[in-house]
Write a structure and sequence with these properties.
The chain has 242 residues and is α/β, with parallel strands linked by helices. The chain has a single domain (6-238), classed as Nitrilase/N-carbamoyl-D-aminoacid amidohydrolase, CATH 3.60.110. Helix content is 27%, strand content 29%. It has six helices and twelve strands. It is globular and about 50 Å long.
């Protein structure tokens, strides 16, 4: 456990525009607006959406956007996912930027077949879903649909914060809320969900404590909260699961 006591976190809840540049401009503006916060999580594929029809264009824009973000991001931690070209195909890749560098990246391993993701993306390896550390705080990433897999909950057990960038559909809104809160309580960890605010998406972005306490508001575009990291230690001492 880190000696850091509090992490000021922001989870975004935004609709994706058809014009990619508008989405990038929105992220850059919000980074400026929340310059005093430590951690910002962006919804899954927010910059381009699942623009399968123009996937090569979306990939090229995303690559350039990451270069711009790396120049801008200093002390903050910024989490987002992008369309990335790998080998002969494309992946949905989570990127964590900190101090002008990519400090963690992870390809989506569990593709959502109802959304035809398997037709356009190569699946990442589940073994790559593992903890990583920044400034003494341990994190793990689950990308949207991956939240449903209990074996992945076990795989990331023990981390301080689980990050969930998502594009989760409105018909399954309750599932997102139950699963994310369940993960926080089961793994005795903070969970940050950043979900799309498109009309057909669930919203339900949230900051959830190890006690299961939730900060969430579907009317907002950004939700702020302080993660008091000593709550993790207290909870794990109070209810011992070993």
């Amino acid at each position: 456990m880190t000696s850091k006591k509090t992490l000021k976190a922001v989870t975004l809840q935004l609709p994706t525009k058809a014009r990619y540049q508008k989405n990038l401009d929105r992220v850059l503006a919000l980074l400026d607006q929340h310059s005093d916060d430590d951690l910002i999580v962006v919804p899954e594929l927010f910059l381009t959406g699942y623009d399968y029809e123009h996937i090569s264009t979306a990939e090229k824009f995303s690559a350039n956007a990451i270069k711009i973000l790396k120049k801008r991001v200093e002390r903050q931690i910024v989490v987002l996912t992008i369309i990335k070209k790998e080998n002969e195909g494309f992946v949905n890749q989570a990127i964590v930027i900190h101090k002008h560098k990519i400090v963690h990246k992870q390809n989506k391993a569990k593709l959502f077949r109802l959304g035809d993701e398997h037709k356009y993306f190569q699946a990442g390896k589940t073994k790559k879903i593992k903890p990583f550390e920044i400034d003494g705080v341990s994190y793990a990433l689950l990308i949207c649909f991956e939240l449903r897999f209990k074996e992945l909950w076990k795989q990331i057990e023990g981390v301080d914060v689980v990050l969930v960038p998502a594009r989760w559909g409105l018909p399954r809104k309750q599932h997102l809320e139950i699963l994310s809160r369940g993960l926080a309580v089961m793994n005795q960890t903070f969970v940050i969900v950043s979900n799309s605010k498109d009309r057909d998406m669930a919203s339900s972005s949230a900051l959830i404590s190890p006690q299961g306490e939730v900060i969430s508001d579907d009317t907002q575009y950004a939700l702020q909260g302080e993660l008091k990291l000593n709550e993790i230690k207290k909870m794990r001492r109070y209810i011992v699961l070993d």
